[in-house]
Amino acid sequence: MKVALIHKDDQRVFDWIQPELEAAGHSVVVRAAQSSEEVLDIARDAEVVWDMGGVQTITAAILPELSKCGAIIRGGSGTDNIPVREATELGIVVANTPDATAVAVPEHTAALILSFTRRVPMHDRGMAAGSWTPEEPLPILLKGKTVGLVGFGRIGRGVADRLRGFEVELLAYDPFPAGGDFAQHGARRCELAELLGAADVVSLHTPLTDDTRHLIGAAELARMKETAVLVNTSRGPVVDSQALLVALESGQIAGAALDVFESEPPDELAKRIVALPNVVATPHTGGHSPNMLDTFCRLSVDTIHDLAAGRWPRSPTVRRSWSRTASNWKTSKGGSRHPV
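Predicted structure:
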């Protein structure tokens, strides 16, 4: 099986990857691809295309020319840079590696929530400027507050588990998981409108899809309490930035804690948001940890081993019934894609 590993120019490719895959009987091509044409040069005859870290060059237009491709692996959690719908229609499985950030992002989310409620960054900036105002802004208690989690997958459940010790009420909105998952993690399932109106903290944990782009806009922000804080560690475009700026400047909501932005690095609109005194911001570091990249790669290689053995990937982006490749993904002896 041929694996085409595509990476960005500045990304390190670990030395162990190619020897392990070759020892398993696969041929491996490793190269940076700055254009879709370069992707085709590398991957036209590959059974697996591996996006190591969020390249923007695997487009819907080139998918039909990847005639042997049965799977695209995204080394990371978000797949908004991959044309998932078009790939699925062609029988190509798209898989990612969300387990690599399943600890870091919940920890970072909890840190942002506590930083805002305890006013840590605000007081840090004040101390650096020489002021001593312990009651301005006044820290507030998380205990007894209602935290609403929008999205209850790995990350949302991880946040719930970490916040339960603070004696908060947990609400969760997600259209997909079975109801039992919610109670198991101490959360009550509810609709988005109820969550927005009841929560003191609204924390976003959804993938970026056509359905979730600007999921939180002017109407949703208007439903939130004036004392509420919006937390986003998912994807920037899940929130309408212009609507958020208006809500923050007008006092419609109390503040925001943001790790992601519609434009990264921040454009002028995002810079205006970050500069506000009621905003805590970090530069998309939520998933980072010392072993993050190695873990992304380890899980990606494990996925390749699973596919080669005819096993359904552990983290597909579509349900098995939605993909024409089904559970026993394979390529035919002639090397073309083989839906079953």
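Summary: Residues 292-308 form the longest helix (17 residues).
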